[in-house]
Amino acid sequence: MSLDRFTERVTSSEELTTFVGTPSAIAIKKELTRLDEHMRRFIAHAPFVVLSTHGLDGRCDASPRGDAPGFVSVVDDRTLLIPDRPGNRRVDRFRNIVETGRVGLLFLVPGMGETLRINGRAILIRDEAWLRPLSAEGKQPRLAVAVEIEECYLQCAKALIRSKLWEPHARPPLQSLPCAAEMLSDQVQLPEFDAAKMQALLDGAYANNLY
Question: How far apart are CA 166 and CA 6, in angstroms?
């Protein structure tokens, strides 16, 4: 019902082209099938990546992954390793990878407007020899995502310029936004968890369970 209210739709690639136009020669040629030296350096500076997946049922997931800059390991110009750190154990992204083996990555470097986009195949690995070098704070990950790159390219900075993402003075005021503990306690609706207890739970997880 929520989408039925929209009656003027774009329903074909040809129609889409009439609205958006065609990409420039640069936009086409910048897409590579393997990492170059610039992309390697970008990944080495990136402390944050969004991992996007989809399952056989069509459900999608975009999961933030973050650690010290360069936490994503470049094995070679076609292969990346993304270590898994402790989380909420929902592992939606992992189920999707097991089912479809497809991922999209978006790397961000704080202060830089451009982002790096990578698409390709993926598998979950648990090889000790590969996981050991991905350890952090003395903790070895139990799993990692191995990505075989099929296409990679730099995304222009327009979105980050418009959002002013890296400009501290442009950040929206947070006074009217409830804290995570308030939102979660309202959403889970468990009587034993009010906002104060939820905040204590979050604080403990952030302090003791990052690795």
Answer: 34
pTM of the shown model: 0.93
Domain assignment present for 124 = yes
Structure confidence by residue, pLDDT tens digits, 63-116: 999 999 999 999 999 999 999 999 888 999 999 999 999 999 999 999 999 999
Task: Verify that 126 and 32 share a domain, yes or no.
Answer: yes
Q: Are residues 38 and 120 in the same domain?
A: yes
Contacts of 152 (CB under 8 A, 6+ apart): 31, 32, 33, 34, 35, 39, 116, 117, 118, 119
- Tokens representing residue 11 in the block: 């329903």
Number of domain units in the chain: 2
In terms of domains, do 43 and 142 share one?
yes
Domain that holds residue 187: 172-208
Residue 27 neighbours by CB distance under 10 Å: 11
Paired strand residues for 52 = 62, 104
3-state helix, strand, coil in the chain (%, to 5): 35, 25, 40
Apex 160 CA angle, 158 and 161, nearest 5: 60
Domain match, 190 and 108 both: no
Strand order in the sheet with 102-108: 60-66, 48-54, 102-108, 115-125, 144-155, 79-83, 73-76
134 and 85 in a common domain: yes
